[in-house]
Amino acid sequence: MKRTKLYIGGEWVQPVDAGTSAVENPATEEIIGEVAAATSADVEPAVQAARGAFPAWSGLAPAERASRLERLWHILDRRREEIARTVTLELGTPLKTATAIQAGLPLTVLRSYVDLVGAYAFSEEIGHSLVLKEPVGVVAAITPWNYPLHQMIAKVAPALLAGCTVVLKPAELTPLVAYMLADAVHEAELPAGVFNMVCGPGAVIGTALAGHPGVDMVSFTGSTEVGKQISVLAASTVKKVALELGGKSANVILDDADLVTAVKVGVGNAFLNAGQTCTAWTRMLVPHSRYEEAVELAAAAAGKYAVGDPMCAGTRLGPVSSARQRASVLAHIDTGLSQGARLVAGGGDLPSRGHYVPATVLADVKPDDVVAQEEIFGPVLAVIPFSDDEEAVTIANNSRYGLSGAVWSGDESRALAVAGRLQSGSVDINGAAFNPVAPFGGYKQSGTGRELGRYGLDEFLQTKAIQR
Ligand code: NAD
Question: CA torsion angle for 370, 371, 374, 380 (degrees, to 10)?
Answer without folding.
Answer: 160
